[in-house]
Amino acid sequence: MKNNQQALEESRKYFPGGVNSPVRAFKAVGGTPPFIASGAGSKIQDIEGTTYIDYVGSWGPLIFGHADPEVLVSIKEAAEKGTTFGAPTLAETELAKLVQAAFPGMEKMRFVSSGTEATMSALRLARGYTNRSLIIKFDGCYHGHADFLLVSAGSGVATLGIPDCPGITPQTASCTVTIPFNDFDALDSAFKTHRGQIAGVIVEPVCGNMGVVSPGKGFLEKLREKTASEGALLVFDEVMTGFRACFGGVQQLMNIEPDLTCLGKIVGGGLPLAVYGGKREIMNRIAPDGPVYQAGTLSGNPLAVAAGISVLRRLRDNSEFYPKLLEKTQRLSDGILNAGLSNGFSLTLNRFGSMFTLFFNNENVQNYAQAKKSDTVKFAKWFRSMLSKGIYLPPSQFEASFVSGVHTDEDVSKTIQVAAESFLEVSK
Ligand code: HOZ
């Protein structure tokens, strides 16, 4: 039997950093990442037999926890009928109806396999529709790893402190205009400088990829008004926020309708599925109805569609689900915050629905520059202490923790208690 360290040494021979997505390597926090053997409900178990309460939830999709029995049945039933056809199925339309019930602005949509594909395709469409080249994105927002979106990006790019990613040509990078989140003046001035050239503005309406950061009062309204008046499209990346606070997204809670929306994670029930969509007139420009090309062999994969239907149906039909989830998230995150404050730490807690980030920073965190002032060394020490006591958090200051419907009151109490012990340990 291998232990985690031996597993990492072997996997390093095959994968850069021993992993298949950079943040998994624990570079920013140190230590050896546990190799996961199995998960059930709110817990995961590594190959050494250690059990953790999991607040990563595969980076967001697992709102009903690991190996959810209903998802498993749906996947099995679908798999028995065939795992992929590369042809239309009735189930795709069923999932589309559920997505549209939650996001009515997605009058037409296209399923893809990852959030990266969704944002990349939505922005190609924005360019094709407006016949303009430039995209505005916000510092610290992360919209997947398409070349033109890896500029001033959050998530793993922020975690690893990579300022400019080699391999992205200057011409490509110059098609992206980056400005600080929550900065009204920077938005005005970007539109002024590039008048008539901005195809679209992409934004995580509540950011998750610099840690959780909410829009200031009026900021999303300003984005809506400015894009409309300048003939640019507004694209909401709700890959993280979709279905995390309600059966819908930030757009529903704040009553702002973007032109295009990107979803991923929960919408595929833990399998690889994402979607972009929006106004009919715009989506009609996608091939084969229009000339903007986008395709995928595994798009609308029957297993992922089945898992998505299983999850979205339950989220739609259980009116008690979100109030309970949000109350639990508040209890947990407030408990962790208070444990830290009472041990003398400078902390700021940002929360949206069932996502939260505890910044080791006593400033109000409203943008990436403020998020970056966090004490990442202390965060890493606290993270390692939590892990050693059985609490699995995202291994980065610039990510969100996710609470699921299956985290128990006992999980919450234990996590708060362990958080207090870990703060004490770090403060020594
Ligand atoms: N995009 C995910 C949430 N920030 C992180 C997943 C990953 O990079 O592996």
Structural summary, described in words:
- With 428 residues, the chain is α/β, with parallel strands linked by helices.
- It has 2 domains: 4-67 and 320-427, Aspartate Aminotransferase, domain 1 (Alpha-Beta Complex), CATH 3.90.1150; 69-317, Type I PLP-dependent aspartate aminotransferase-like (Major domain) (Aspartate Aminotransferase, domain 2, 3-Layer(aba) Sandwich), CATH 3.40.640.
- Helix content is 38%, strand content 14%.
- It has helices spanning 4-12, 69-80, 90-102, 115-130, 155-160, 170-173, 184-193, 219-230, 250-253, 280-283, 302-317, 321-342, 368-371, 376-388, 409-427, and strands at residues 36-40, 43-46, 51-54, 108-112, 134-138, 176-179, 198-203, 233-237, 260-263, 274-278, 348-352, 355-359, 391-392, 401-402.
- It has a 7-stranded mixed beta sheet, with helices on both faces. Strands 1-2-3-13 form a 4-stranded mixed beta sheet.
- Strand 8, helix 9 (250-253) and strand 9 (260-263) form a beta-alpha-beta unit.
- Helix 2 packs antiparallel against helix 11 and helix 7 runs parallel beside helix 8 (219-230).
- The protein is globular, with a radius of gyration of 21 Å.
- Bound molecules: (4S)-4,5-diaminopentanoic acid (HOZ).
- Residues 21, 23, 59, 142, 155-156, 209, 399 line the site of (4S)-4,5-diaminopentanoic acid.
